[in-house]
């Protein structure tokens, strides 16, 4: 993204993960590939960031500790805000979500996330799930 003073900003990723240790690992992987990273742990934080900042991708855990809202609620809000499905990367250890994600055009990565699978997803290639 170009700014008026010829400074090129790095692309941004929002990591939505309720486990702080996993969030730190996922953020580190994203930084390896040149992305600026923001991390949030809950639904409200994710929606607040998504409304204020444009993200190239959102790396999203579906099973958040929020009792009323989960990752699928974030996906629905992202559609309302104007994000495309190919900007969403679901990362989950619930493999039954994989088929549904493939059917609706959302990238699915299995936990534990590997650097290689994330790299492939960011390049638009088929991850090695």
Number of strands: 5
State the low-pLDDT regions, or none. none
> How is the CATH topology named?
Rossmann fold
Strand content: 15-25%
The helical percent reads 25-40%
Number of helices: 5
Average of pLDDT: 90
Tell me about this structure.
This protein is of the alpha/beta class and 129 residues long. The protein has one domain: Rossmann fold (3-Layer(aba) Sandwich). The protein has 5 helices and 5 strands, in the order E-H-E-H-E-H-E-H-E-H. Strands 2-1-3-4-5 form a 5-stranded parallel beta sheet, sandwiched between helices. Strand 1 (12-16), helix 1 and strand 2 form a beta-alpha-beta unit. Helix 2 runs parallel beside helix 3. The longest helix is centred in the N-terminal third of the chain and has 13 residues, at 20-32. It starts with 11 loop residues before the first strand and ends in a 7-residue tail after the last helix.
What's the arrangement of secondary structure elements?
Elements: E1 12-16, H1 20-32, E2 36-40, H2 43-52, E3 57-60, H3 71-81, E4 88-92, H4 96-104, E5 107-110, H5 115-122
Parallel strand pairs: 1-2, 1-3, 3-4, 4-5
Helix pairs in contact: 2-3
Keywords:
single chain, 129 residues, alpha/beta, Rossmann fold, 5-stranded parallel β-sheet, globular
Brief summary of the model shown:
By secondary structure, the chain is an alpha/beta fold. Helix content is 40%, strand content 18%. Strand 1 (12-16), helix 1 (20-32) and strand 2 form a beta-alpha-beta unit.
């Amino acid at each position: 993204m170009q700014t008026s003073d010829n400074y090129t900003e790095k692309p941004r990723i929002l990591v939505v993960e309720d486990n702080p240790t996993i969030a730190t690992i996922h953020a580190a992987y994203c930084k390896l590939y040149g992305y600026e990273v923001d991390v949030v742990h809950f639904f409200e934080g994710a929606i607040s960031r998504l409304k204020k900042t444009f993200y190239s991708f959102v790396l999203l855990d579906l099973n958040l500790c929020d009792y009323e809202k989960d990752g699928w609620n974030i996906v629905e809000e992202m559609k309302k805000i104007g994000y495309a499905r190919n900007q969403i990367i679901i990362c989950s250890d619930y493999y039954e979500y994989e088929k549904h994600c493939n059917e609706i055009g959302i990238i699915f990565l299995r936990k534990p996330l590997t650097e290689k699978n994330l790299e492939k997803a960011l390049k638009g290639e088929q991850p090695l799930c």
